[in-house]
## 1
Amino acid sequence: MPQIAAYDSKIEGNVIFTQLDAAMNWMRKNSLWPMPMGLACCAIELMATAASRFDIARFGSEVMRFSPRQCDVMIVAGTVTYKMALAVKRIWEQMPEPKWCIAMGACASSGGMYRSYAVLQGIDQLIPVDVYVSGCPPRPEALLEGLIRLQKKIEGESSFLNQKPKLIHELMPEIEERTPPRPSIRGGVTGGTPSPSSLV
Amino acid sequence: MTGDELLDSLSRLLGAKIQSRIEFRGETTFSIQPEDLHQVAKFCRDELSFDYLIDISSIDNFGDEPRFEVVYELYSMTLAVHLRLKLAVSEEVCAVDTVSDLWPTADWHEREIYDMMGIRFNNHPDLRRILMWDGYPFFPLRKDFPLEGLPSEMPDVAFTSAAPMEGGPFVTQPSTATAKDREPRAKRPDLNQ
């Protein structure tokens, strides 16, 4: 845990000392604007989580921006069919760094009950997922727990190095040992068409 | 006229065109030849007031000859009568006349049948895939297509792969046992309690 200096506003005034990582992670985790990739029934529970009873805005997800350019976290809520899969990947690539992904529900995590010709067996075949929320559909409380787990994960991240991971790893390859790049799945975070040969 | 009178009159008027008439629990099914479909359907719609085409579906009798059947569910809203028309389509022909000029809803039903079963519809205004994407090489609901799918690739459009089956589709067997015993269990014994 990063050390944060003890703070007494009468003595020190309105200045605190902290680590850059801690401050940036605090700002990022408390304002995770979701990109709701609501594809099927889990989207209804996502709407319920955003409504007044469970209120995801309490945790910083104030607005569900439907433009990927303005979002931090993509919540893939619902069955990802092969027809939709590349569109989801395209939206993911349009989101600016830093970005995270929550796979909500059984279908987004692993294909769910649909072991069939038309359903992608988990969105983690195409994009890197940070938190999997199980359930069919998960209760709003479960999705909030997933969001809180994501916030805890963000607390522990190296915030600046996550900003432009590919660029940094190109310029300073030795950094790769300390912070390995996000898992590059099926063509990487930016671009590349997936090929089926790498699947089971 | 009542429903029964209507269907009797249909039998008499169409006569030879009807290959068989089955009645089961109040549901009437006529089997006709694919060549007569448009004429019979137009007669049903115009003369007999079957103004509502509820559904068109298709059956794959893999191994039988002729291989496919196409089933039309008709309904008369004024007389509250249901009617089913069945055609047998062989695999070599694999084509049927469209009825979308009679009932516009048939447009999408026929596109779905083309997408899933591969049966073409003559004179269809826009016959292309509706659930899968254009260029998908298979017909998924045929009996010789595996449940888990087959790999395919269309760069920048879509891809598919075979889903992992982990021991096969787990199907509940019908019996009088309790649900705990009817439901299939995991194949690895250490995963059971």
Note: The mean pLDDT of chain B is 88.
## 2
Amino acid sequence: MGDFTMPSLGADMESGKVTHWLVKPGDEVKRGDIVAVVQTEKSEIEVEIFENGTIDELVVPEGGRVPVGAVLAHITTHAPVKAPGARVSPPVPARETGPREGGRPSRQGREEPTVKPTSVHGALVESPLVRHLAERLGVDLGSLSGSGLGGCVTRADVERAASRSTKREARRERGGRPSSSPFARRLADELGVELARISGTGPAGSVIERDVRRAALAAQPEEHEVKVATAEDRQRAMQRAIGALMARSKREVPHYYLSATIDLSVAASWLEQSNLDRPVSDRLVMATLLFSATARAVKRVPEMNGFYVEGTFTPSEAVHLGVAISQRSGGLIAPAIHDADQLGLAELMARVKDLVIRARSGVLRSSEMSDSTITVTNLGDRGVESVFGVIYPPQVALVGFGRVREQPWAEGGVVSVRPCVVATLSGDHRVSDGMRGGRFLSEIERLLQEPEKL
Amino acid sequence: MSLITYREAMRQAIRDALIRDERVFVMGEDVGHYGGCYAVTLGLLEEFGSERIRDTPLSESTFVGAGIGAALGGMRPIVEVMTVNFSLLALDQIMNNAATLLYMSGGQLNVPLVIRMATGAGRQVAAQHSHSLEGWFAHIPGLRILAPATVEDARGMLWPALNDPDPVLIFEHAMLYNVEGELTDEPAPVDISTAAVRREGSDVTIIAYGGTVRTALGAADQLAGDGIAAEVIDLRCLRPLDTATIVSSVARTHRAVVVDEGWRSGSLSAEVSARITEEVFYDLDAPVARVCSAEVPMPYAKHLEDEAIPQVADVVAAVHQMRS
Amino acid sequence: MTDAGSTPTSGVVTRPADDEHVVHLLREMLRIRRFEERCVELYSRTAIRGFLHLGIGEEACAVGVMEALTPDDAVVATYREHGHALARGLSMRATMAELEGKIEGCSRGRGGSMHLFDASTRFYGGNAIVAGGLPLAVGLALADHLRGRRRVTACFFGDGAVAEGEFHESMNLASLWRLPVLFCCENNLYAMGTALKLTESETDLSLKASSYRIPAWEVDGMDVLAVEEAARQAAEAVRGGGGPHFLEMRTYRFRAHSMYDPDRYREKPEVEGWKERDPIPALVARLSDSGVLAEGDLDRMESEIASEVDDAVAFADAGTFEPLEDLERFVTSETTSGSVVP
């Protein structure tokens, strides 16, 4: 028993209509006989049979339209029918990505695969291929109207429906966002600058590179709590930003360096006396005196306190002392103590302690990060003698203190042992010079000789 | 070192090839008795004879196809199509045979053919004689497309092109023939696959090829006066494109301008722009700008032609605009 | 045979060829016929896809001309070239596998029916652009001329190609440079679906050849012995440096232009009339009448050919598809190109 199927009569033929049968059940046919007339989109064509045999049943009636490959009639063959040979159906889609054995390409054929009907007499339903595809893409077949023969759903219908829904999703996600260049966005991330707060000077007000660089240098006046998901993230972001800033500072700021060794004997004995009246938890440390002296010294030498931005130095009325704090993960940040020159020693110390705790847990206010007008770094407890640091732009000075240690002191021809500390200044040579810098360090020294006034 | 013209450099290259390889011969319109439309082959007929320097009838399709056939038959033809404007008559042979035979035959048939064509506008020769279609040819897989913009490349690209087992098209901008440049007395071989940085800079990358390289360099000079350091890249090979050189430059400068004498729409500059977006989008501080010919058939009147073709001022303006 | 410039005459005196040779010619034509018939079936079953142009009825042209060529000669053909490929020496297996798109095909499955190529037999396709192969043939002949090789390039094309500019350019150039091209025109009176008389102001193709000073031969394309004789003489002249020759073989396609052609443009009586001049039964009759072909010889030959075809189909069916990752191979050569060459 064999099948006579609808032949392909052209490269783009998808289906044909049987207009006439030239044989009926019971007729003998031989190879080469014309058995039917088929109508395609272009014309009517006489169709021949390739087997010898007897017609058993005409499956598709005259007028019936079926796809290429559909069974048209059943025949009983006489001569042993050699394997029809090349029944290589069009390549089938497969899940695997590699080529398979046995010669079937594993990718879907480029042309629309022929839709095989599940019923033969005219009524067409979607093929297993289409059903499988719809399931995979999450498309509800029932909701689709088909563009195929007789309204059946084709592969193209399914794919179109799937892409429509993904486009809708994408549109929903894309909310309002300030326009900025890709590089600006990347740079903002690196420098730890918040993109949304930058006003852009690029086309149509978009934020571009120079806007980000400007924002990274300039002060940001508003204050708000910045709590982030994890302290680690915040620290890392800050570190990155500071690192970039340090590199730039070294590149752009012409540093000069001065140091002075300060006799702390007066301050030390005053401290000891003063602490006798304080509870243990409130006992002052030498660092507090050093910070206070620094903050007040600035009033005498204002060239040490302010911002240098785009060629101009703006001195600051207020003294917001940046205090360099090391982080557990490594790296340094320098948040500000506002109006440090106005604070009493106890208050100053409390503020520093609080800052250290919050800095290490990642909860700092943005104003603390951006408002420092001068920064001090105290590496005394690290055992360092003196520190010549890198100025944090747009500030113009950095004061460093090493450890307090006893050392021989010659004065008035007499040698004694006194507690001393090396104070250093890194100055921006565009704003001050050695004369002014020296004046500043002397002022710090002078203040430390009158600790009761701090 | 000596100062020679681009034309002379190309003539030397052809002569050198004819001497070194007896399979090489030249075929095209007016290459022999006339001396070459642009005088590139002047004197070669007298030196090498009419078997190797062949004047053809005005039959672009057939003599290009014959070049393909001769290459199939073991020769190394240099086919000269007078200008890219006439190559349209041979487009079928170039696309359907030269570019395709190797692939269609499953790797059996190589076509080691070189086709040279003059290209470009600027001499008031109007709409049918002023095309820049390098981008069209650069669209076709199977072809290598070269655009020598310097004397060194005019001298050096032909020999490796002849030794390429696959078809190579060399586009010579007509305005370059008279341009002089320095050439060493022992010209070194050049490669035919990479772009070249003709000028280094850090603020913007200007990408050009063929005739527009000089425009790009002129713009870079002017921009330097404005404090903008432009990097100029000469593409040299239009297919395959040296994407690596392009994107590594743009990654550093964050801005790119492509200068292309073709019409903007669907041009080679569109391809370059797309590749930059694909590879270094996150390094861009501005969209890739393109300076191309106005989308008009080339007019005859000088002021109109000058307006239609990319000029130094156009490139400078494009750079300023992207930074403003 | 016409001399350049003189009016053409038709008819060629055929030399009595030896019997074995004539039987060989029959076999060659029959191989092509049965191969083509099998292609119809395979196409209907979608084993062969795309376009399929069959040469049923025109077998005598390919077979006759190939007899005049040596293995060193070159052949350029059209998209209706299965017969030419088989007659030139491509195996049925490689050809059938190509039609089925398998990697074992002569073009690795890259070409299909219209792009059969075989470098070893100097078979340069398989060209799908009408008249697109003529310039290639001119170039191949040019290479032989420049290298002093005494080879012929046989270039097959149909009457439709005569309308294309390339035909005129190529004839002119070949004649001008006296190149060894044998232009073989299979005039089947129709260019796809349009009759020659509707497209040519001058339908006498030999006249066109002589306008280029090319000697032209008009031959009965349904008589393989006549074709062979003309081809031999013409090829000899070409090989001897006489410049190109033009062979017009008057023949007919029994089937439509391609598989999907309803053949509306030809009258049934005309088709039937030509079928009566089918070159194969004609030769069979001639051989039977003269006693060369005895009882059972033809059946035996048919049976052998049927086996060869079956074997080719089985070979093709069992073939493999080129791996997808090789899609971009052979766009350019696999040796490094573009590198610096000293």
Note: The first strand of chain C starts at residue 74 and ends at 77.
## 3
Amino acid sequence: MKKIQNKYKIITNESLCPKYWRMVFDAPQIAAEVKPGQFVHIRTDEEGLQPFFRRPFSVFRAQKYVEIFYAVVGRGTKLLSLKKKGDSIDVLGPLGTPFIYPPESTKQVVMIAGGIGVAPMLILSDVLKKKKCALFLLYGARSREFVYPMTEFKDNGVKVHVATEDGSVGLKGRISILFDKIDWTVKDTFIYTCGPNPMLKAVQTFAGKQGIAGQVACEAIMACGLGACQGCSIETTSGYKTVCHDGPAFNLDEVIFH
Amino acid sequence: MLFKNPVTVASGTFGHSERYYDLEEVKRLGAIVPKTVTFHPQTGNPPVRIVETASGMINAIGIENPGIDAFIADKLPALKSIRVPLIISISGKDEEQWVGIIEKLNTQEGITAVELNLSCPNLKNKVLVAQDAQATMQLVKQMKALSKFPIIAKLSPNVTDIAQIAQAAEDGGADAVSLVNTFQAMAIDVKTRRSRIGNITGGLSGPAIRPIAVYMVRRVAASVKIPVIGMGGIMNAQDALEFLIAGATMVAVGTANFINPRAPLDVLEGIEAFMKENKIDDINEIIGSLKV
């Protein structure tokens, strides 16, 4: 294997809010190479085979260490959450096609994230803050339990707007009610989005009507993560493409959501 | 056919070698089997194409591939440049396609063998060729007569008696048989009452099928004289040794590649360590050494 499969030491592993966790591990090689939108593929059960597949995680941040942001939803992520400082994890990465950056002329970038879909946005803002454009994050979640302080975004100069379905934080409703917070008449706006498919479809439709270009980070059940098994293919305007190798980042208008 | 070691990869489980693999390491494999190539390009099945199951997975990828012409033009040169024996897996929908693929491959050099993926439709009997001994014999015979490369018949486990099909392949003149392909399977989402696979059914692979695959390899090895390539859920050297002891002369690592891309090399190194530990110089001392 090229040096993309390795065991790395965990620096911290903690919950940031009731539903989401952050794991930080010492992987200088990944930290040096990874680009926003790429992911790491983690074997959560190294001894047994439950779960059988690795689990893909967007890289949340890569500075000195590599960070992932995850929700505990099944056995794999449960096992991940039980890992302690000093433990090691088996990581394959960085994998996948990263986000492309907005054109130089871009005046504002709007990141639209639902739930755990916020994961690839922090590392993106780490890069984009060096460019001369205004940064916004529209964040939609079910309730307070799914909203973490987002101080890192604010430190990057990102203007954050939150909506929750129960109104416990920010505006009450789905993420689309936050669209009013943005002046879409600003020329050269660029969108990045990640989240559940119905949300992505809504964002795609909205962006299409406004004539705004963007990128989307997609999710799929994945086996190999290397483009070998072709198991994670999704439908695009140019046929089936693998999320793991051709994506996760695609042009927003390219993916066909069902 | 002679290989420098008995470890290869199963068709459809190894890809994008230039981007992800250390080619010096790949060169240590006994052979490489790229994903099955069909006559025409195939776009594959609608998602969802894979589902994780207990110690395994179900897949219904639909043999997504560029077709034989594009394979020869775009993929084969890079595969040849790795300088590992190549076993090209092919599948046709009818006689014309099978013949067409073989004729196109015959124009090429640097191929070690051709593997016939017999889990393809048998138009006459509405079953797979691999499920019909007569059809298997006839197809293998025809391909053997045409092909300038040795012929390997890849068998399906979805039959009553796999030894009978293996014998038919041997009678047709196959140089080797490889087994097993995946087991027909499905998984249902109880909430939606829909299949968890877009294609409704798929093929089960991974360690879940290994004991059945070992049994089938044992049965086939006892029934034919040609070499047997064994596969089915091999995750490590211990698993591979089971197949060798059962009578396989070569083993293929498949689904394990998805969990551990270095699995074929781990298997190879593990077999070497086992031989050293047990002071075995010749792999033939292990092959078919099952004590009963």
Note: Chain A has five helices and 15 strands.
